[in-house]
Amino acid sequence: MNRALLLAVLPVLTLAYVLPSSLDDDPRCDSDWTYFDVTSSCYYVGSENNFDSAQADCASIGGNLTSIHNGFENNFVASLTEIGAKESTDDMTWIGLRYVANKWTWTDGSDTSYLNWMKGRPQKDTNKYACVQASILQDDYKGAKTQWNDVECNIKMRKYVCKKPAKF
């Protein structure tokens, strides 16, 4: 095959191979969920809810507000909700960390060995500021991009992220 023909055909063959697999839903996750291979979990992004309503929505579709167990997962969750964020404390993302019975716990019951607090957090009044939002802003918010802030649970956040195990 001559070089000119190969150069003309190669991009078409590449698109034919790559495009269908990238457009298909991952069979390990339900429609509208995103698979993350590092955790073998599926993630769903919801909108405009306070903490308890967001957790109830996640539970109704088989998950929980997301737990986060390492920096890779933290950055992945941030990337899911980054578009459209502004510099505002209610324009961030609910994650599933909550202060219950004098300790921070994930809504899915998993361990809290990984924590990524903003400087000066958590706040001292943990009964008032008992739920956690992730800073996912495109522009670094107070030097805390991808870090966590404890806030009142009744605030409506712009986004929340649900998580559930993938299907195998």
Write up what this structure looks like.
By secondary structure, the chain is an alpha+beta fold. The N and C termini lie far apart (42 Å). Strands 1, 2, 3, 4, 5, 6, 7 and 8 form an 8-stranded mixed sheet that branches. Helices cover 25% and strands 26% of the residues. Residues 6-24 have low confidence and may be disordered. A hairpin with a 4-residue loop joins strand 1 and strand 2. It has one domain: Mannose-Binding Protein A, subunit A (Mannose-Binding Protein A, Chain A), CATH 3.10.100.10. Pfam families: Lectin_C (PF00059). Keywords: Signal. Residues 1-16 form the signal peptide. InterPro entries: C-type_lectin-like (IPR001304), C-type_lectin-like/link_sf (IPR016186), C-type_lectin/snaclec_domain (IPR050111), CTDL_fold (IPR016187).
